[in-house]
Amino acid sequence: MRLFAATLATESNTFSPLPTSLAAFREGVFLRPGEHPDDAPRMCTAPLFVARRRAGKDGFTLVEGSCFAASPAGTTNRADYEFMRDEILGQLKAALPVDGVLLGLHGAMVAHGYDDVEGDILERVREIVGPKVVIGVELDPHCHLTKRRVQAADITILYKEFPHTDVAERAEEVLDLVLATLRGELNPVTSVYDCRQIGSYPTTQPLMRAFVDKVKAMEGKDGILSISIGHCFPYADVEELSGRILVITDNDKAKADAVATALGEEFVSMRGKTAPPYETVEGGIRSALSHNGAPVVVADPADNAGGGAPSDNTTILRHLIETGAESAALAPIWDPVAVRLCFDAGLGARFPLRFGGKIAPTSGQPIDATVTVTRLARDAWQSFGPTKVPVGDCAAIRVGGLEVVLISNRTQALGLEIFRNVGIEPTERKLLVVKSTNHFMGAFGPIAAKVIYVDSDGPLSRDYRRLPYTKVARPIWPLDEVTHPGLIL
Questions:
Q1: I want to staple 60 with a disulfide (CB 3.0 to 4.6 A). Which of 1, 36, 247, 324 is the partner?
Q2: CB-based contact 164:384 (threshold 8 Å)
């Protein structure tokens, strides 16, 4: 038995001013066959990573393709997308004959000329391998669960957790179902229910936590093989943007339809109840500093690099400096130029530095301050569940009682290493400000005395009605009050 595995992934914010090119993939994950490290999966590479570890035990030969992944940003350059896609497709053709294909994709990648990148890839893979080869794909729940891609694959499974701490478990599930199908033990059939809604669904919040736990308890019983909850990615203007429920059963389409419908209707009933409350910047910082415990974590989702934002907005940073906050640390500010200047100045240097506020009007004005360089680190990483995420060269600077982490590889705050790389111990600070929507909770939730979410003036508005959609199919909530959810597959 022969399986082929590869990855091509990014999350595309079509409203972002940051174009995505091959350089962004080289900065993230750019691995040719056999180059994937053995220590941990990288962004969206878990299917290959898991298959490599299980090939001998499960009696199959793994043919490894390339793995390409980039931090979320704007629409991908068309020629660069086609170059990476065609490289993987060429590797697949060279690997033939194969019995199965495993793809680690994101699900919200958009390239110029390709609003449904994953649908394009999967259809081309299907054309190459034919109808009998089993195709399994792992997607991020912040995906566009389009009909085109679901129909092209046999097994589609999304991570269940937000923060995405279960990428390896879901990859194991994809591989299990692909192998069982190849052995003739299963005949997977799929149903998809379109909930016609745009929303945010952190699984660290009570309502969504209970919904996911319910779904997990249903799997493996009564012929239900897998259930996936597609949250959608709100910051992409594509036709099939919407929250959707995907159910896979063993040769029972009627059951798949019934389960998808029941769960879809329940998901619709949760509209407007799943996201945490948001405070103003001033109110959130005031609440954090007045809280008795420590550390208090303040999240800035509006400037989250994980949603395609630059991560260089200065609004909260400026407020902390102007109010003289003490025992406070903020991460990250993406500013490769400022990082370079800190390295040039050297450890311990005190010098005038302009940082942040570079990319767009929503970045705010840059900060001009006399700073002290407190720590420097080369080629740093942070952890995100089982994966490792590059931070690049980074520097810690002090402005009064505030410490700021500057990074050269744009990413959100995920692991405690974002501070520890540069000598800041997060458990010893009163206030931690993190630029992230909810992925930070995996590492910061357990140490936080309190978590506060603020809505700054960064580019990722929490009110989706303010986004200038032109392609999204209507009606859809909250853009429209009356919608028409239902089965689409």
A1: 1
A2: yes
